Amino acid sequence: MAARRRWGRFWLLLTPAVLAAGALLAATASGALATSVAASGSAFKVSADRVVADGVRAVPALYTEPGEGGARHPVLRATVRRARIEGLCVSLVVPTPLGKVTLRAVAGRSDPVEGTGLSVDAGSVRGKVDFTGVLAAAGGVWEGGTGGFLAATDHVVVRDGKVTGWQGAGASLRMSDPDVGLLMGEHECY
User: Fold this and answer.
1) CA-to-CA distance for 119 and 132, rounded, in angstroms?
2) pLDDT digit string (tens) for 123-182?
3) What is the C-alpha separation between 22 and 96, in angstroms, rounded?
4) Could you give the dihedral angle defined by the CA atoms of residues 37, 39, 40 and 41, in that order, rounded to the nearest 10 degrees?
5) What local confidence, expressed as pLDDT, does residue 140 receive?
6) What is the Cα–Cα distance from 116 to 101, expressed in whole angstroms?
7) What is the pTM of this model?
8) Burial class (CB in 10 A: 0-12, 13-18, 19+), 116
9) d(CA 152, CA 174)
10) Cα distance between residue 187 and residue 184, in whole Å
11) Which of 94, 78, 91 is nearest to 40 (CA)?
12) Distance between CA 156 and CA 129 in Å, rounded?
């Protein structure tokens, strides 16, 4: 009987959260709502088949997890003025009393995801990259970073991109085909 009550409480708490997440995703997909993601205690993973971006800047920084005594992680803080993303996948694995659950969002399969004012604190970045108009500078303190190095590019194309991130934000995101789900177990994007 106690186990049945625990399952009932779990679904009672989970259902409003999933509905709220769906409503927020719908508002985000239409471009009506700015987006922000932060993963306390665990990094999220992002993969994309192709990213075309303008106005990219990257500086070294420190990300501090929320809460008192939050862990600190060295990151590459990248900002993007505008991007079009094909084959986007975002995943976050969350430990629960029932085991690990993956929150996974996929978009940009039929039409690219379009975003403006994007920012990510990345622990690692991989992919095949073509740059145009590159600037690399060392020795200064740059806006939004701890200083020491700046990389900037006018235009970049990334194929098979993979990012492990601690925090991400966007002024706007427009998606035509989002698919969000909770999956039991670990089902990360890469």
Assistant:
1) 20
2) 999 999 998 988 887 765 555 555 567 788 999 999 999 999 999 999 998 998 899 999
3) 20
4) -170
5) 58
6) 30
7) 0.73
8) middle
9) 25
10) 8
11) 94
12) 7
Query: How many angstroms separate the CA atoms of 104 and 29, rounded?
Result: 15
The region that residue 25 occupies, defined by phi over 0 for left and psi between -120 and 50 for alpha, beta otherwise, is alpha
Name the residue type at position 162: K
Nearest CA among 38, 52, 168, 34 for reference residue 108: 52
pLDDT in tens, 27-51: 444 444 444 454 555 789 999 999 9
How many residues does the structure list for the chain?
Answer: 190
CA torsion, ordered 156, 162, 165, 167, to nearest 10 deg: 50
Amino acid in position 155:
H
Q: Which two tokens stand for residue 79?
A: 């900002």
